[in-house]
Prior knowledge:
Blueprint (H helix, E strand, L loop, with lengths): L8 E5 L9 E8 L2 E9 L6 H5 L7 H5 L7 H16 L5 H32 L4 H7 L1 H22 L8 E2 L2 E2 L5 H5 L2 H18 L12 E6 L11 E4 L4 E2 L4 H4 E6 L2 E8 L5 E2 L2 H8 L5 H9 L12 H21 L14 H6 L30 H5 L4 E3 L8 E3 L19 E3 L1
Helix pairs in contact: 3-4, 4-6, 4-12, 5-6, 6-8, 8-12, 11-12
Amino acid sequence: MTHKSTGDRLLTVDTLARVEGEGSMRVQVRAGTVTDVELGIYEPPRFFEALLRGRSYLEPPDITARICGICPVAYQMSACQAIEAACGVTVTEEIRLLRRLLYCGEWIESHALHIYLLHAPDFLGYESAIELARDHRDVVERGLRLKKAGNTVMSVVGGRSIHPVNVKVGGFYRAPSRVELSVLIPQLEEALADAVATVQLVSTFDFPDFEQPHDYVSLRSAYDEYPLESGSLVSTGGLSFTPAEFEDYITEEHVARSNALHARLRGVDAYVVGPLARYSLNADRIGPVSSAAAAEAGLGGECRNPFRSIVVRAVETVYACEEALRIVRGWHGAAMSAVPVPDPVKEKGRERIFLTGDVPSPANPPSGCPFRTRCPRAKDICAQEMPPLVQAVGSPVGHAFACHFPVTDDDPLTPGGEANAAVIA
Length: 425
């Protein structure tokens, strides 16, 4: 990035190294100025949308997690929240915090991998992290400790560190106890110190003087927190919209050179997401330790130099450790591991039952059958005689009911007809 050229050149890289995926790059230089850059993604499409069609509404979290082994939680949370929104379900605060903790674990391990194994070797002039470890073993070991800490959080909360199996629509299959989460504290405290040291290290790298002019787009949490697992979308250009309005603002299209969709803001402008966008739109919401680390690294309230994204990513790692510790130290358990999520197909076809009449008073019960005042099948005899208690056909011994006009297989219930029997279990 430091060489200069005054002529015309076409730079082509068929296989990019140290990226999460498979890609190539073509750079056109004319008169010493870069006039065109094309990033090609030739990784074959895997058609996850097609895999999900016809599946149960409970399956997407487990299927979409397979999109990536490094950041499966991002896909699981997106799938869960989309389905819960469609079903009109809101999770409890405990479940929300547990999801946020799981996301912290993913950020710690994913950011550490990106910084130490993919990004730092380029800045320090090494071919790989293995070469870097030969001269700076302590640096690489710090990165591996961070990644291990993140993996541990994911294992405790998600069941395993790669493609967590404890996530479900509505919450988790099992919520960890206070004791189970408290064992994470020593490792997270060490990770926090390692993350601060990471910011100090990467802030000393030599960065080209460059700023990008594009709009930044990021989540903005409704909980006065740095965005991790949920929120609305905001931009540096002043836009604000919900995930449900995504297609009203973002246009996605195919291009010949890439199997990845290309997106534009309102169909025209390129935009930037990721650490730079998140930090620039939410710098006021990072924690006290991460805020101090950012200030020491020379970051202001906005960062537009893409080369300094490694510094911002390191600050986010500090925040993820800080936030994980906050959640773990305040955890007292969850009253429920998941909220019920109704089947949307069944709910759509279900007729709502409206009972009419007066609710019987236990202090002055009506004559005859006490349920007759709200029963659509009630007749004169129901007001005169209490129906006899009889054993229900085909039911376990002891399951009986009392009704003058019981429903049979040949006499299906009509809307409102469920209240036609006094059932004694």
